[in-house]
Amino acid sequence: MKITKSFRKSILIKINTSGELIVKAPYFTSKKSIEGFVLKNKEWINEKKEIILERTKTFTEWENFLFLWEEYRLKFIWESKKNQFDWKNFIIWKKYKHHAAEAFSNFYRHEARKYIEKRIEFIADKFNLKFKKLKITSARTRWGSCTSAKNINFSYRLIMAPTETIDYVIVHELAHLKEMNHSKKFWTLVQKMMDDLELWDYKKHKKWLNKNWDKLIF
Asked: Are 24 and 2 in contact, with CB atoms under 8 Å apart?
């Protein structure tokens, strides 16, 4: 974190192109106040860092990428101006080769929202659960979360996982609408919902995520 002070009225935070946090603060602002402001905006900071760092990545042709736990190759072509996915390859216009990471994150985010939006509505309706907002994030370390305001977040990286595992994460976060903890009562509720959906043992999916999460990060 880089801090600069000047004659300004408020604290400003931004992320530079290398992913470093820049804080601009008024003179005489205490270190404690700056740290408190940064902590309050931690979620925004982490999301912006992810976006910036992803944009700097480069990929090689024929590299494999996951979608619903199936592998598809990356192909660069000259003759098209449109990036696309044809269920055989991820196709990137060669002119935008160095922006492939951004194309991938946009694709995954779009597909994650499309799939998760449909499934969470189905599962929530089945168990008469109500949530307020659905948000798709770029989180690397958390596949989902449920806030006290009943807003539910999912990492777009989940769309790389098997469909049953994605459903488990949806069940997990919906269960928090009733039990905002990880108590025995919570896990009993998760298992009951899994059984009713014929997804069976939640522990299997939990272990799968712990074992394979690093493969869902490109």
From this structure: no
| Residue 57 lies inside a defined structural domain of this protein | no
Q: Are residues 211 and 177 in the same domain?
A: yes
pTM more than 0.85: no
List phi, psi (to 5°) of 95. -60, -30
Residues in a beta bridge with 47: none
How far apart, in whole angstroms, are the C-alpha atoms of residue 18 and residue 42?
A: 18
pLDDT in tens, 108-131: 999 999 999 999 999 999 999 999
Residues 17-42 have pLDDT tens digits of: 667 889 999 988 998 999 999 998 88
Q: How far apart are CA 45 and CA 47, in angstroms?
A: 6
**In terms of residue numbers, what domain contains 6?**
2-41
All residues at 6 or more sequence positions from 81 whose CB lies less than 8 Å from its CB, including other chains:
93, 95
